[in-house]
Amino acid sequence: MFNKISYFIVFINLSLLLSCQEDKKVAINQINYKLVWADEFDTSGKPDATKWNYEIGFIRNNEKQYYTDNFKNVRVEDGNLIIEAHKEKIANKDFKSDKFKDKSWLHYISKTDTAQYTSASLTTKGIAEWTYGKIEIKAKLPKGVGQWPAIWMLGENKKEVGWPKCGEIDIMEHVGFEKDSIFGTIHTQAYNHMKGTQKGKNVFIDVPYDSFHIFSIEWTPKKIDFLLDGVVYNHVKNEYKSVDEWPFDQNFHLKLNAAIGGGLGGIKGIDDSVFPQQMVVDYVRVYQLKLVK
């Protein structure tokens, strides 16, 4: 009996010690991070042009929305960024364009004269890009079948090497037909959805349409952790093979968009009765580790 009690006491003390060490580790990590870029969306009107660019038109993935910079589709109000999707027609500026003739996956763009939906996509490309750090976004998501909101990043060398060799980090993806889950994923030359080898996981999310949640990654030369409300649900390690597996030692820019339909979002169609829909963003913050002397 004495041995069992002694063992139990040692076990409890060890557990408390480890718990304290973990708490200390978390505290140290928080102390070592410094804020290097942020948008708190405190000024009403158009998004800050010193921090965001717009994607315009049909862009990717056979999605059905036409991205605009119209105020009804993207604005800052009441301390939040609003990306709002509408069911409405808009002429396609690239109808019958020949600029996609060598890109078979984009041929649908030049064949579509009128879009049936509008939305917005913001990007920091050409303005702000980062290598490593903690990227954190607090947001509420749009609701309904056919909605495909995403918070994601692309490597700065995309123009030179193309996708997926440039690398993609999907901090958060959500599809409306799976209303209680989100996804965190990486795509690379070796690991991507075209091959079915992408490294992604989904996690349960409670009331993503009515409540704000914090979507983030912690990205170092060794790993990328995907977090929902501060809890890691996907851990991707650097295998130290080549850039085909790990293209993440370079600058990446950030994108925020609310897509409609497309290769993933439109698998079960689009519910037109839900429009308009909003992705509401409270803040975007980028932290990097302080140099410890």
Mean pLDDT across all amino acids: 91
Low-confidence stretches: 1-29
- Write down the overall geometry: globular
Order of helices and strands: HEEEEEHEEEEHEEEEEEEHE
Number of contiguous helices = 4
**Helices and strands: which structural class?**
alpha+beta
Amino- and carboxy-terminal Cα gap: 51 Å
Relative strand content = 35-45%
CATH architecture: Sandwich
Q: Helicity range of the residues?
A: 10-25%
- CATH topology-level fold name: Jelly Rolls
- What oligomeric state do the depicted chains represent? single chain
Broad CATH class: Mainly Beta
Strand tally is: 17
Q: What Rg do the Cα atoms give?
A: 21 Å
Short description:
With 293 residues, the protein is an alpha+beta fold.
Describe this structure in words.
By secondary structure, the protein is an alpha+beta fold. It has one domain (about 35-290): Sandwich (Jelly Rolls), CATH 2.60.120.200. It contains four helices and 17 strands. The chain has helices at about 1-30, 105-110, 160, 260-265; strands at about 35-40, 55, 65, 75, 80-90, 115-120, 120-125, 135-140, 145-155, 170-175, 180-185, 200-205, 215-220, 225-230, 230-235, 250-260, 275-290. The strands form two sheets. Strands 1, 3, 4, 5, 6, 8, 13, 14, 15 and 17 form a ten-stranded mixed β-sheet that branches. A seven-stranded antiparallel β-sheet has the order 2-7-16-9-10-11-12.
